[in-house]
Amino acid sequence: MNYYHLLSVFFLLLPFWGTAQKVDLDSFGLTLNEQGKGKTDAENIALYLTYLKLAEEAQRQDLYGGIYYNLALYQQRQNNFEKCQEYIDRSIHWLKIHADTTNLARSYIMSGIMDFFKKDYAASAEKLELSATLYEATGNSLRAAFAKAKLGNVYEAQDLPEQATPYFAAFFEVAQSSGDSSMMMSALINLASNAFNLKQYEPALAYNQQSLEYAEALHRHHEYEQMLWLKSLIEEDKGSPEASIATLRKYVTFRDSFLNEEQNRQIAEMETQYETEKKEATIALQEVALQQQRTRFWLILGILAIALAGGALLFRLTRILRKRNEEKEFLIKEIHHRVKNNLQVLSSLLYLQSKHIKDDAALDAVREGQNRVDAMGLIHQKLYMGDNMAAVEMGDYLRNLGDTLLDSFGLDEDRIKINYHVEPLHLDVDTAIPLGLIINELVTNSLKYAFPDERPGTLEISLWKNKNGQLCLKVADDGVGKAGAPELKNSTSFGTNLVQILSKKLKGAPQVQDGEGYATVIEFENFKEVG
């Protein structure tokens, strides 16, 4: 699935964002939507779990389906797909028992999306068609057309944009008749992506512009940002690199301004909370002083009161320090996010530039530079998305790096297979970046020279610690070897020099094994493992 088809995943989820359904507990007189305003997804998950317990205590099984649906929704927003699948299965179970057709149709859409993520397109299409049938049975033509439009996303994911077009067009007509702005935005986004995949650039740009206007009017920042990115791709594919770069700059500016706005809001909330706690601490001290004056003749009680006050103050100071640490962690994550985004922009600019380079040597140099930028960007992505902001889990990182390089060379596992033998290792960023660049160069060298004339083969990437405590790396292939790769003699030595320099930084020396295939083994002494 290329990037254009990945867009369909984003479009598939659009109508679910910000649309949690209302669940009422009559005996408690509570409305979860009202309580959930302004809360994070994690806070809303905790809220719905609380109300699930209340519903169980009240034996309100008729509410289980709706509660489980909302739990699945917030888990999906957090990319916790395994938990989302568990909750949506429970939702469907209870909605079937209570014959809640409308909400059952909605839950089938969510279940179809989970199958879509697992690339089980047949199961996804079956559930989406079932959802459309249930909506039609209730007379809700708008939601039925919406469910059928998701079938278009399934076809696009299978490289069948022509079969997706009728579904998107039908959804657009119904959405237009309904006057629902959110649905109109979703329909226009589908049409823009579909026209782009069909290389119909003028309609794609027209639909894209209308979707941008709807997203701006509805204050849908995420959709607006993604449509700017799609517009840059359309302009680039159309042959307008200057317009594409200008749109890309607008995309980066908008994204950064939105991130800054969100960051400032969170910092303001932290400052308000800190000032509140500070005032509470001052009031607590004044109360302790007053109590001491009243009980000055009772020495034992006075000492006890002071001890209790000291403990309370220590507890408050501990909470303040914890809040400050959380703020620092947030800012560190933001830094890694910014670095990753800037590297992504640089990679995109290199890609755009490569489209206009005719000289093969220059084109190879630009693409190799793009691969090096992607190798570094992948590390910062792992840092800001992971729980440990100081360490990179090397097994997952190397598998992602290997897949990225195979995609870069247009290869797949049917021809070239990469075997990974990686011990569980968490390395700090100063070790992971040079190590990732070394592996990028060695794997790139094998993919370029080891398998000429469409020859199939296997690569091995191994990373472990030996009995002497050294970090050991091996990159090997079963290709033609150095003697069978005449083009290698005419290549530049930049990659080789880069491996030598980075190996020296980690106090290692590359050892080449050339025979049946080609292998490089390096033992590093200077590295830092993070627990």
Describe the 3D structure.
This protein is of the alpha+beta class and 531 residues long. It is 69% helix and 8% strand. The chain contains 18 helices and nine strands. The protein has helices at 3-13, 32-36, 41-57, 64-77, 81-97, 101-117, 121-137, 141-157, 161-178, 181-197, 201-217, 221-238, 241-294, 299-354, 360-385, 394-408, 429-449, 494-505; strands spanning 24-25, 30-31, 392-393, 416-422, 426-427, 457-465, 471-477, 511-515, 517-524. The strands form three sheets. A five-stranded mixed sheet has the order 4-6-7-9-8, with helices on one face. A two-stranded antiparallel ribbon has the order 1-2. It has a two-stranded antiparallel sheet with strand order 3-5.
For the structure shown, list the relevant keywords.
5-stranded mixed sheet; 531 residues; alpha+beta; two-stranded antiparallel ribbon; 9 strands
